[in-house]
Write a structure and sequence with these properties.
This protein is 45% helix and 15% strand. It is α/β, with parallel strands linked by helices. Helix 4 links the parallel strand 6 and strand 7.
């Protein structure tokens, strides 16, 4: 074992539930440890930038979720990402997950990014947090998920859908894609690629884009700004004035602007543009809908303005992006 001093850069929680795929739980645990070793090798530093991993499970009484294993047990918990692994049984045989769903909702409201793999999306769906949101699951379960939770926009074609505060992955082995996606977010592209090469697996397709990926900050500790962020991610196509956003959290427009920029690093209008362009990129990759229609769907009434903003943020035109990354 490497004896270098460790600095924790993120904590990733893994939810263990009845009939879940333990191979994913332990595989991700190993992957994040390997990534930390490669990060130190690449940086040349004498300290290990550790990714802390903790395992969580409903207690015997069935009334709360407790930590049952921790890679760094002497530290106080501060979960950055919570992952729901795949299920080994069909969705029809999965039991109710109300207790972990309530716990996950609490974490989400504290700024934790929630993730699911394969049928883990059914557990995540019980929180209600992916209603009116795009999400993916195993192609064989997609219709069941859509029927059981009709408010979810189920996109079965995508291996990983990164929606900022919610990330869902598709097939039963898509935990590899999800794990590499999180490693890139936490430790950078070089570490992600080195980890993939060491494990002899392909990097996640969506994350190989040469263009900048919008990574919103949900861990700033400002609960009022977090509430507005979640609202913008869920209702991105609507019009949002500074005044209405400020009123939503009972702040004056001036105070709201100051708090929002301090928490996110962006002005609210710029933040909303990033969210809309993120959604537009998904639509360009996954559908054949005309660019003008996509512009309207993500909240732009002027298609030419949308094209200019898209090119400014992504670096290419919507048509060029579709030509390179379309799955149609």
């Amino acid at each position: 074992m490497n004896s270098a001093k460790s600095t924790i850069v993120a904590e990733i929680g893994l939810l263990i539930y009845r009939d879940c795929q333990l191979a994913a739980v332990y595989g991700l645990t190993d992957m994040f440890r390997i990534a930390a070793d490669w990060a130190m090798s690449i940086s040349g530093e004498d300290r290990k930038l550790a990714i802390r991993v903790s395992h969580w499970q409903v207690n015997e009484e069935g009334d709360t979720v407790e930590c049952v294993w921790d890679s760094h047990p002497d530290e106080s918990h501060r979960i950055s990402y919570l992952i729901v692994p795949p299920s080994l049984v069909m969705p029809a045989l999965m039991t109710s997950m109300k207790v972990p769903a309530d716990w996950m909702s609490t974490l989400y409201n504290q700024g934790v990014t929630l993730c699911s793999v394969c049928a883990g999306a059914f557990v995540l769906a019980e929180t209600g947090l992916i209603n009116r949101r795009r999400a993916t699951t195993h192609w064989a379960f997609a219709q069941t998920l859509a029927d059981r939770f009709p408010e979810i926009d189920v996109v079965a074609e995508k291996m990983v859908i990164d929606d900022g505060d919610i990330i869902t992955a598709g097939g039963i082995l898509a935990w590899i894609d999800l794990g590499l996606t999180l490693i890139e977010k936490i430790s950078g592209t070089s570490t992600m690629l080195a980890t993939a090469r060491f494990l002899l697996v392909d990097p996640p397709r969506r994350e190989q884009s040469p263009y900048a990926v919008f990574i919103p900050n949900f861990e700033h500790g400002d609960s009022k700004i977090l509430l507005v962020q979640h609202h913008l991610h869920a209702c991105y196509s609507e019009q949002h004035s500074i005044e209405t956003m400020a009123e939503r959290v009972s702040l004056s427009p001036r105070t709201f602007l100051r708090h929002f920029q301090k928490a996110t690093g962006l002005r609210p209008t710029d933040y909303l543009q990033q969210v809309r362009i993120m959604k537009a990129r998904d639509a360009l990759e996954l559908t054949a809908r005309p660019v003008d229609v996509i512009a309207w769907e993500v909240g732009y009434t002027d298609a030419s303005a949308f094209r200019k903003i898209f090119r400014k943020i992504v670096g290419v035109t919507p048509g060029q992006h579709r030509q390179r990354f379309s799955t149609e």
